[in-house]
Design brief:
The longest helix is centred in the middle third of the chain and has 15 residues, at about 105-115. Strands 10, 11, 13, 14, 15, 16 and 17 form a 7-stranded antiparallel β-sheet that branches. The chain has helices at about 45-55, 90, 105-115, 145, 205-210, 305-310; strands at about 5-10, 15-20, 20-25, 30-35, 40-45, 65, 70-75, 80-85, 95-100, 220, 225-235, 240, 245-250, 255-260, 265-275, 280, 285-300. By secondary structure, it is an alpha+beta fold. The structure holds P-hydroxybenzoic acid and fe (iii) ion (FE). P-hydroxybenzoic acid binds near residues 236 and 297. P-hydroxybenzoic acid binds near residues 216 and 240.
């Protein structure tokens, strides 16, 4: 199997990492990525924010572009790590490069890199105004922030078995930008015998207490239908190219989406979503969101494992509706 190595600390205090023929290193401002046909650099804060999502989400659905060059593509068991694979200019020049890794191996290396390169005070999940700096020579660590688990309900937050998922019970406070969100909980009057079937919770209140940004949690599950609301502020740290359709419902405030062709990065659309707006993102695009102020977004995913194959073979359309 592919070799994976952690190297000793450099003059800035950061260890180096290699995976197959990719080499990763960081200095005080930048992360350097080197592969047999080229090299690339990213600002350390942007790299760590993207890396944090890839690790926490288990490589997510489809493609996670760290930027226009570096990407992972999830094949659910293996993961492709690539440079220029989803970039028209690299593809035309045949300078793109892809290597396939066992999912657990790349996850372990990414987690080790995230841990070593995240300094004390920097929280890759937090908005820029709610975290310290990512930069400078290595100082300390922030294991508590980077090992947060994504909330994943078995049925629904506050349903039987999922009672502990209400963030208020974990002691989280209302975010400064959601001070006006009501915190009362619904009154439930279940028929005797149905107390464990009829459950409810205040979703807006729940989201107002989220201390992370751009990190959808699974608040309800019905077969493959996952409701994944999230609170957003500043910029989505990845450019996501899904392998299926996903729906967005804007609950509050405003998000601007840059939508590009998933394979080449060619611009396709600008979408400005305001409260109540609903969008279906086609299965052949990639997107990045910009949220000028903290907002609430519902991401609705169909997690059925046969969708990518059905889309790839044309059995399912790229868009769920024809307008
Ligand atoms: C997405 O790429 O669809 C996505 C990811 C994280 C979010 C919102 C949307 O917080
Ligand atoms: Fe997406």
């Amino acid at each position: 199997m592919e070799n994976m190595q952690n190297e000793p600390a450099n003059a800035h205090g950061y260890r180096g990492f290699s995976l197959g023929s990719f080499k990763f290193s960081r200095d005080e401002y930048f992360v350097h990525i080197v592969w047999p046909k080229g090299r690339h650099l990213m600002a350390a804060d942007a790299f760590l924010r993207a890396l944090q999502r890839d690790v926490a989400w288990g490589f997510f659905y489809g493609t996670v572009n760290f930027d226009a060059v570096i990407a992972t593509q999830n094949h659910y068991g293996t993961v492709d790590l690539s440079a220029g694979r989803f970039n028209a200019a690299y593809r035309e020049a045949k300078t793109d490069f892809t290597e396939t890794f066992d999912s657990e191996k790349i996850r372990a290396l990414f987690a080790a890199m995230l841990e070593d390169w995240t300094n004390e005070g920097f929280d890759p999940f937090a908005s820029p105004t709610e975290t310290g700096s990512a930069f400078g020579p290595k100082h300390g660590s922030n294991r508590a922030a980077i090992s947060r688990h994504r909330v994943t309900a078995k049925r629904m937050v506050n349903a039987q078995d999922d009672e502990l998922l209400r963030t208020d019970q974990n002691g989280f406070t209302v975010n400064r930008q959601f001070a006006d969100v009501a915190q009362d909980e619904p009154e439930i009057n279940a028929e005797p015998g149905f107390e464990n079937e009829v459950r409810a919770f205040n979703l807006a209140g729940y989201l107002s207490r989220s201390d992370v940004t751009w990190n959808p949690s699974v608040v309800s599950v019905c077969k493959h239908s996952l409701m994944c609301p999230t609170t957003e502020e500043y910029v989505l740290p990845i450019i996501h190219g899904n392998d299926r359709v996903e729906w967005f419902v804007q609950f509050s405030d405003e998000i601007h989406w840059d939508v590009e062709d998933g394979a080449t990065g060619a611009p396709r659309a600008k979408v400005v979503m305001k409260p109540g707006d609903v969008a279906a993102m086609p299965a052949d695009i990639r997107h990045r969101g910009y949220s000028p102020k903290r907002s609430m977004l519902l991401v609705w995913e169909n997690a059925s494992p046969d969708i990518p194959e059905k889309i790839a073979s044309g059995k399912l359309p790229l868009r769920p509706v024809k307008l």
